[in-house]
Amino acid sequence: MNFELTIAKIAEIKADLELILVIDNDFKHHFVQDKKLLKKAGFEGGQDETCLLIGENRLYVGAGSLESTALRTATASAMKALLGKNYKHIKVSTYTNKGCTYSLRAMVEGFILGDYTFETYKSQKNESKIKHITISLDEYNGMALDIEKASVQVHKAQIIADATNFTRDIVNTTPDDCYPEVMASIAEGMAEDVGLKCHVLKPKQLKKEKMETLLAVARASRHTPRVIHLTHKPKKAKMKVTLVGKGLTYDSGGLSLKPADYMVTMKSDKSGGSAVMGIMKAIAEMDLPIEVHGFIGAVENMIGGDAYKPDDVLVAKNGKTIEVRNTDAEGRLVLADVLCYAQQEVRSDYIFDFATLTGACVVGVGHYTSGVMGNSDEVKAMVVKEAKNAGELATALDFNPYLKKTIKSEIADICNISNTRYGGAITAGQFLSEFIDKKHTDKWAHIDIAGPAFVEHAWGENPHGASGAGVRLMVKLLEKLAK
Ligand code: BES
Ligand code: ZN
Ligand code: ZN
């Protein structure tokens, strides 16, 4: 999709369709002659409500306010309403919150995110035909906008939304089409396209690196595991950041097999790793002045004669022993080794990990919100704040010493599950903290994206299925750190 910014008045622009946002029920920009039609159609201008006036070639969409979140979901809803229709070129005015060009970024993000469909496995496609969007700097409140500043935001929005859609595509791909080797080749191809370094570790090297817990999880699968290391190394880097992603291309639960109903959608267990790939793509394209390393543990958790078992004791890369009591708590085992490897390879100012780690996180905070954990209140607060600025929902879940005791083991250094039914997101986070070196203790945050990464209905600017959770959040945070 192409975007064109112009100082031309909206009425002077030729297009198939005009999009008009109705802000907070204020119909001041509607065409007088449309009033009756809109009324007849029952259009009230509520947030994300759409009304297509076919004869007039105008699409009306409601937005509750001029806040970024409202504008983003409004433009996304407009695109969703146009899926399967034959409009190719639309025009729209600019709606800003007091002239701030971030509003424009939100609008453009909404257009691209709302236009997303995943139809790889459909014979009949229902994709959007819109190829061109012309945005007039005709502003809703008559603000004069700087076209240079505006176009910078449009460009950033395109990079971020495209990267989010890239992540969505990987997550939505079936486990038979996307297994660890494929994850690695997607990473290599993307790295080549945007100019990142990409190093892939295969089983032999994983063995040499003593990543025995990761290898144990992978053992029963016919698809061998990979650890992917992507590097963005600009000339004048302000700081170093490490990202780590859980890339379970399928999670059957292993011998602690998941019940049938819970196994469906577990292709999405690679969402953390896929988010790391999308983030790396975006920051390379933006050429952010920060050195960023992305590590992805790509593994398939299956059953078979060679499967790792409840009762096994595994030795992680840092030498800690882990009693396995449930093979479905595999994400933390994979992440333990990848976190150790990442810290051995790079000493960073911050470490962030992304994982669809626990169902408990979804139970606790719902489907739309990520859980943010770690040892530093400051780092957690920074993640929560930037999530909000980026249009994602995240909330801090605090560690405590009582829950920490529940992952003690009688026979090893630590157990891979807790002895209580409650607080599962936090105990998983506290398990991971055992694999964070002292030097990184207060520089790490764990982001459990089990809820928002994959939802089986459309919500806000997100489609049914993968949302690309974590991408917008982390790009925004990295932009902030780069300032
Ligand atoms: N991948 C799952 C967590 C998950 C559940 C992600 C639902 C997305 C939606 C993870 O590997 C898992 O199975 N966790 C177990 C841990 C338990 C055995 C301690 C869980 O949450 O039930
Ligand atoms: Zn699992
Ligand atoms: Zn899992």
What is the radius of gyration computed over CA atoms, rounded to a whole number of angstroms? 23 Å
The span between the termini is 29 Å
Instruction: Report the CATH topology name of the largest domain.
Output: Aminopeptidase
> Which shape, going by the Cα principal axes?
elongated
Helix content class: 25-40%
Fourth-level CATH superfamily of the largest domain: Zn peptidases
Strands side by side in the biggest sheet: 7-8-10-9-13-17-14-15
Bound chemical compounds? ligand BES, zinc ion
Number of domains: 2
Residue runs with pLDDT of under 50 for 5 or more positions: none
Residue share in β-strands: 15-25%
Number of strands: 19
Category by helix and strand content: alpha/beta
Task: Give an overview of the whole structure.
- With 483 residues, the chain is α/β, with parallel strands linked by helices.
- The protein folds into 2 domains: 2-145, Leucine Aminopeptidase, subunit E, domain 1 (3-Layer(aba) Sandwich); 175-482, Aminopeptidase (3-Layer(aba) Sandwich), CATH 3.40.630.10.
- Helices cover 35% and strands 22% of the residues.
- The protein contains 15 helices and 19 strands.
- The protein has helices at 35-40, 68-82, 102-114, 147-172, 180-194, 203-208, 212-218, 260-263, 271-286, 331-345, 359-365, 377-390, 401-405, 424-433, 471-482, and strands spanning 2-6, 17-23, 50-53, 58-63, 89-94, 132-139, 197-201, 226-232, 240-251, 291-301, 313-315, 321-323, 350-355, 369-374, 393-396, 414-415, 444-448, 454-455, 465-466.
- It has an 8-stranded mixed β-sheet, sandwiched between helices.
- The longest helix is centred in the first third of the chain and has 26 residues, at 147-172.
- The chain is elongated and about 75 Å long.
- The model has no long low-confidence stretch (mean pLDDT 97).
- The structure holds ligand BES and zinc ion (2 copies).
- Residues 251, 269, 326, 328-331, 356-360, 362, 417, 424, 450 line the site of ligand BES.
